[in-house]
Amino acid sequence: MSTRRYDPEAARDDILDAAERLFATKGFDGVSTASIAKEAGVSQSQIHYHFDTKRKLWDKVFERRFMDYFAAQSSLLDDREVEDMTRMRNSITSYFRFCENNPDYLSLLGRAQLDAAQGGEGEQAKEMGEALMRKGSEVIAAAQTAGTIRDDVRPDFVIVGFLSLVAHWFTGGRLVMGEAGHENPEQHDREYLGFIVKVYLRGSAP
Length: 206
Fold this sequence. Notes:
Layout: H1 8-26, H2 33-40, H3 44-51, H4 54-78, H5 84-101, H6 105-114, H7 123-146, H8 155-176, H9 180-183, H10 185-204
Helix pairs in contact: 1-2, 1-4, 1-6, 4-5, 4-7, 5-8, 5-10, 7-8, 8-10
């Protein structure tokens, strides 16, 4: 065993990384603390030391992964110096890049919905998500009042719509494209992001 394992913070990160991979593929009920410990190269006692229970570890996996996105998206929404349509473009792009750079996140989210009896994605991540939805809806409603975004659509539907378009691309869109989607995935990601932005900005214009 590497001496790195004696670093508490390194061991904690290894546990979170291993738990994220396993939870994303097997869900909460399909993963044991023993399997997480084996994947992370640590003892089960270290998992209990750092996280107490599997439920708390599950929550912390979501919280850690979502926290940076929450901070970035909140900053974008709070920037009133940026024109409304540009803010919408930046917000869509931020979520797209988040999903692109965290391929296990949407699988985790899907597992959380299937494992709703276990509490979904955890209170902290849920609260952050709800806070972003409220803030985003307020920004869109203000833009509608100002006449920069069409006012015949619900603000929360605007948000749910682009979240769904992005999520679908990373969970099924590439597969639908078949071999073409695997030839140059980075190029296809850029093109699909451009498509979402173009459709949303034009469709949201008053």
